[in-house]
Design goal:
The protein has 388 residues and is mainly α. The chain has helices at 2-27, 29-41, 45-69, 74-94, 98-108, 110-126, 132-140, 143-157, 161-182, 195-198, 210-243, 248-272, 277-297, 302-330, 335-364, 366-383. Helix content is 82%, strand content 0%. Helix 1 packs antiparallel against helix 9 (161-182), helix 4 packs antiparallel against helix 6 and helix 12 (248-272) runs parallel beside helix 14 (302-330). The longest helix is centred in the middle third of the chain and has 34 residues, at 210-243. The protein starts with a helix and ends in a 5-residue tail after the last helix.
């Protein structure tokens, strides 16, 4: 028992590191270093937007693969996540033109999509049942430390953005290897006995049937709305600060605050771990809305902006944890598949929200865009429904 707990703890640490790298150091760091990349490679705003859209698409591809394969092949998914993140980051570091950079950036986002469902499965099979909810929350909160690391790295090396991507590539390999080494099973499942027979929502091929989607319909809508509502901050938050006169160091510090807010989920998991998913969802969505509004209304006041980013970062990360807990409650036999589908829906919402926010900013300004985004996020709270 003692040995099992030790291994479960090691996997939780390694899993947190893999999430930190694939999300914080690779996928979300694109927007952080983009101004410096544009200056060096002549990357225009329009092409940068298409690259971001392509990266979101590849994230979804990775997550869909995870949706289908996590139950039987979680270790293979870890290899896919670490390798695509590493190759993509290295490709960005080596690129000398916008096209090469764009292809590498798009590839790199696959890793984040594949990592989450794999880790849900690995954590569940390596952790004592009563410790699984908190372990999942801790691993999912890895985005926060990753954002903090990306911000600190940016402060240290920018405008030398290639160095940042080389570091991210190395960290991807190390984190992936750590997860594989701390998985006590040491191999993927070759059969799916039991799972296909224990729930009517899953067919013999391991894919959710229509009843699975019916059970998740409101939660899928809520994830889509939250993704759309959060897109303004993730895509235009730093731009709003810069446009308001905030200097480079302070705007990067705000990015770090986003990460610190996400990392705080690890600390608050002692409190939130015992909550029902519906309550945690309502609280976390409220935090996202408050952070978005505060950032839009007073972006030039640095202390307020930092607190707003902190609150937003906590709310967003806690909300993704609530999604994991909720799909686990609905269908525990397909928690990893549910996580994949919900995260795909969340990112699709972000793609739609980013496009909409950009259009509104061009016509009515950032305050209006952020207010509308906050409203969409607020609607996601009741959209999930009180129970399933």
């Amino acid at each position: 028992m003692k040995r099992s707990f030790s291994k479960g703890t090691g996997l939780a640490v390694a899993g947190t590191a893999l999430v930190a790298v694939t999300y914080g150091l690779v996928r979300l760091a694109y927007g952080l270093v983009l101004p410096d990349v544009q200056a060096d490679l002549g990357l225009g705003a329009a092409l940068a937007g298409w690259i971001s859209a392509g990266a979101s698409t590849m994230y979804c591809v990775g997550a869909v693969i995870g949706f289908l394969a996590a139950t039987r092949h979680p270790r293979s998914l870890v290899v896919l996540a670490a390798s695509t993140a590493a190759v993509g980051a290295a490709g960005m570091a080596w690129s000398h033109d916008a096209t090469t950079f764009g292809v590498a950036a798009v590839l790199s986002s696959t890793g984040a999509g594949a990592a989450s469902p794999a880790l849900v499965r690995l954590v569940a099979r390596n952790t004592a049942p009563d410790r699984v909810p908190r372990a999942q929350a801790v691993v999912n909160a890895g985005t926060g430390p990753g954002l903090v690391a990306a911000g600190l790295l940016a402060l240290a090396v920018l405008p030398e953005w290639r160095t940042a991507w080389f570091v991210a590539a190395a960290c991807s390999v190390l984190a992936g290897a750590a997860v594989l080494l701390t998985d006590h099973r040491g191999h993927d499942d070759t059969t799916e006995r039991g799972h296909a027979d224990t729930t009517e929502r899953v067919d013999r091929a391991g894919r959710p049937t229509g009843s699975w989607f019916v059970a998740h319909r409101r939660l899928l809508l809520a994830a889509l709305l939250l993704g759309a509502g959060s897109a303004a901050v993730w895509n235009y938050g730093r731009s709003v600060l810069v446009d308001a006169g905030v200097d480079r160091e302070a705007s990067i510090t705000a990015w770090i605050a986003l990460g610190l807010g996400g990392a705080a989920v690890v600390v608050t998991s002692r409190w939130t771990g015992g909550m029902r998913p519906a309550r945690l969802w309502a609280i976390s969505v409220t935090a996202v809305v408050v952070g978005s509004l505060a950032l839009a209304v007073v972006p030039g006041t640095v202390p307020v902006a930092l607190v707003a980013c902190l609150v937003f970062g906590w709310g967003y990360t806690a909300a993704t944890g609530a999604l994991i807990a909720w799909t686990t409650e609905i269908d525990p036999d397909r928690a990893s598949a549910g996580t994949s589908m919900l995260f795909v829906t969340l990112v699709l919402g972000q793609a739609l929200g980013a496009a909409a926010a950009g259009a509104v900013i061009g016509v009515a300004g950032a305050v209006t865009a952020f207010a509308l985004a906050a409203l969409v996020g607020l609607v996601s709270a009741p959209a999930a429904g009180p129970r399933h």
